[in-house]
Amino acid sequence: MRWGVLIAAAIIVVRIVLEQAGVPESICLIFGVAWLYFIFPVLFAVGIRVRNDASPYKRLLKDIFLFLIYTRVMVMVTYMLAYVFNWSAQRFAYPGGNVGENVSVLSGILLVPLRNLLIWVVMAGIIGIIIGSIALLLTRKASKPATA
Fold this sequence. Notes:
The longest helix is centred in the C-terminal third of the chain and has 39 residues, at about 105-145. Helices cover about 75% and strands about 0% of the residues. Helix 1 runs parallel beside helix 4 and helix 4 runs antiparallel to helix 5 (about 105-145). It has about 150 residues and is mostly helical. The chain has 5 helices and no strands.
């Protein structure tokens, strides 16, 4: 989990630097934590199987949820900073974003970042649970000894 959060933090910083440098959005999209929500549930499942956890699905749920909260809070902070510093990246733009002339302080600092956090935790949580559960099932079958 620790490495996942550190990798996510690095990706977030790289993306902000690229956006502020004016790199095209198509390249900036490569550096998004959303990709990690497809990869880390599999890594969590493999780790759970390697450790032979007593309740693997419970552990998977906990790992996915904590990873999502940690990463989405980091992204939420970037949205807050975007409002404060009036960053011009497309993802922060009004409407839908939190930077622009028509955005109130309440929306820019709290409502839009919090909305994004909640939406992403639910969406990525569902995706992560599905992918992680499939990985747990596949690793269980792969770890069973063959019977002759």
